[in-house]
Design a protein that fits this description.
single chain; 9 strands; elongated
């Protein structure tokens, strides 16, 4: 069966080794940022690879300069700045906030990414450039992680306006180091990820393709039934440890981070001064306004936005 066509990615048999399927995120103009179509297309592409009897292993990679730069949030953060507040399931303007509307959307995206984890065939994330925010969710839902030494991985929105819905950091990295990254929002390099045990392999960028190919080729020689059994055993341990419960909590909290006082401040800051400026504040280490301070700044920013909208 021919591989289906998708808007945000491609999937096909590897031209060298048909036991390998290559799933390539393909929005290079946005550093493969996640739009509303991509999660479902990842799930559908994985389903296609699973249906191919020849395929033993799936490699997930990114076209262009990065693996994936996270969710494509510019429009979501800035919308309303020039044409009035716009309700969105993930950033609602109406009050009270309906947490279950938000949860339904983000839970669906999380389940789409988890197709990489649930499928019977091993999955390898090959990371160059960046695998950050939601892009790190995609990478960490894969069974194995191969990175360029200088690639970056992390979840910067833990500082404000985000919580990793897949909850994979703890299961992949351990509690202490997962807490360090969640508390700081810092990025680590591929070299550090390998040192910490997060990445299976880290090599110079020029050697990334060869290193990933060698690992995929080695795995592809193992019978599919054996690969499926070994994967199921390890996954069952993670499920017993509470992975699904952690994901439910994380997905609810992700919505909270976008609608509590600090999350609303970030949204209004992005509307007033642009998403890039809001992100620069978030990642700089400057204290992020919270509680009453955040509420006061929201009021000031809303006044600024309203005045700007009245201007000709």
């Amino acid at each position: 069966m021919d591989a289906p066509a998708f808007a945000t990615l491609t999937v096909a048999h590897d031209v060298r080794n048909r036991r390998i399927a290559r799933l390539r995120l393909n929005r290079p103009h946005r550093l493969n940022a996640i739009d509303p179509q991509m999660p479902g297309e990842i799930r559908a592409a994985v389903a296609w690879a699973e249906s191919q009897g020849e395929v033993h292993v799936i490699v997930v990679e990114g076209e262009g300069r990065a693996f994936c730069a996270g969710y494509d949030l510019v429009a979501l953060a800035e919308e309303g700045s020039n044409h009035g507040a716009v309700d969105h399931p993930l950033q609602q303007e109406s009050k009270p906030w309906d947490s279950m509307v938000d949860y339904a959307v983000m839970k669906r995206y999380t389940e789409d990414f988890m197709a990489l984890w649930r499928c019977a065939k091993p999955t390898i994330a090959k990371v160059h450039g960046y695998a950050v925010a939601g892009g790190s969710d995609i990478a960490l839902c894969c069974d194995l992680l191969v990175m360029a030494d200088d690639a970056k991985i992390g979840y910067m929105p833990t500082r404000v306006w985000g919580c990793p819905t897949t909850a994979m950091w703890t299961f992949r990295l351990g509690a202490a180091r997962a807490k360090q990254l969640m508390f700081t929002g810092d990025l680590i390099t591929g070299a550090q990820a390998a040192d910490w045990g997060l990445a299976n392999i880290a090599v110079p960028a020029a050697e990334l393709d060869a290193a990933c190919d060698a690992l995929a080729d080695r795995i592809s020689g193992v019978p599919r039934s054996h690969l499926a059994m070994h994967k199921l055993v390890v996954n069952q341990v993670m499920l017993t440890m509470g992975l699904e419960q952690a994901q439910t909590l994380a997905t609810v909290f992700d919505g909270v981070t976008r609608h509590n006082p600090e999350g609303l401040w970030f949204r209004r800051q992005a509307q007033a001064d642009g998403f890039k400026a809001a992100v620069e504040w978030r990642d700089s280490g400057r204290p992020i306004p919270e509680a009453d301070e955040a509420r006061a700044l929201v009021a000031e920013l809303e006044k600024r936005i309203g005045e700007a909208m009245k201007s000709p």
